[in-house]
Design brief:
9 helices; Rossmann fold; alpha/beta; about 20% strand; 8-stranded mixed sheet; globular
């Protein structure tokens, strides 16, 4: 992915294209590259912005989903953004939901894919053991329908994170914060258009999670992608982008 990473005022982010803003949030061990195909396909019509969430950089006591939402708000204010379509995968979706509840005036629409916030079966019910590359490889593969999507580069990145004590403590703190902060009772307050784009074979936030989101969110549409796990924008990018494009066309004023 050959996009320029910008560093300003303590923020690291990608900012490509012009037009209405698509702001994309990655997951717990995700990266900017997770949204690479979205940038490529949408930057001709939209301004695609992806901030790095400072998951590993916060003081341990403040590491949590609410702090991440506050960080997103600081970033949006700094960049003077408005009328945003906010997209979130996994933890990024959870952060997006918290942000939207606090600042609905900033957001035009919401796109959730494999979002936590109701239930998440992280790592298949067991946390990766440090030092065991094969075990971590197996758990990264569990994220996808097709294990081949878990490239060596991707597995290496997760292995490096898991074997850094500073990082892994914050991952555990963030995961616990996400479990504690269940969104079910709040979802009825989100009245903007929401696209739920879900892998039918997601084992981390399974299909019943998407169905529950759809039932609780007043103005949501649920789209399924076959042969797809927890990160549709990575595993089935063409189908994901086709659905996203259709949704964005539908909500255009």
């Amino acid at each position: 992915m050959d996009f320029v990473l910008k560093e300003e005022n303590g923020f690291s982010y990608i900012d490509e294209g012009e037009g209405e803003v698509l702001l994309c949030l990655h997951g717990l061990m995700g990266a900017l590259s997770n949204w690479g195909k979205v940038i490529e396909d949408f930057k001709s019509e939209y301004r695609v912005i992806i901030p790095i969430l400072p998951i590993y950089d916060l003081p341990l006591l403040t590491t949590g989903v609410k702090t991440m939402a506050k960080y997103v708000h600081k970033f949006i204010r700094y960049k003077q953004l408005s009328d945003i379509t906010l997209c979130g995968n996994s933890l990024g979706g959870h952060v997006a939901l918290i942000y939207v509840l606090s600042h609905p005036e900033m957001i035009k629409s919401l796109v959730l894919t494999g979002s936590s916030g109701l239930y998440e079966n992280a790592f298949g019910g067991s946390f990766p053991r440090r030092g065991s590359y094969d075990f971590i490889k197996e758990k990264v593969e569990y994220t996808f329908y097709d294990p081949a999507v878990a490239t060596k580069e991707l597995v290496d990145d997760v292995f490096r994170i898991i074997n850094d004590r500073h990082s892994v403590i914050r991952i555990l703190a963030m995961a616990k914060s996400a479990i504690r902060h269940n969104m079910k009772k709040d979802l009825h307050e989100i009245n903007m258009p929401v696209a739920l784009i879900w892998g039918k074979d997601d084992k981390i936030t399974p299909p019943e999670v998407a169905i529950e989101f759809h039932e609780e969110l007043p103005d949501s549409e649920l789209y399924w992608i076959d042969h797809c796990g927890h990160a549709p924008m990575m595993e089935q990018p063409e189908e994901f982008n086709k659905i996203l494009k259709g949704f964005l066309e539908k909500i255009k004023v």
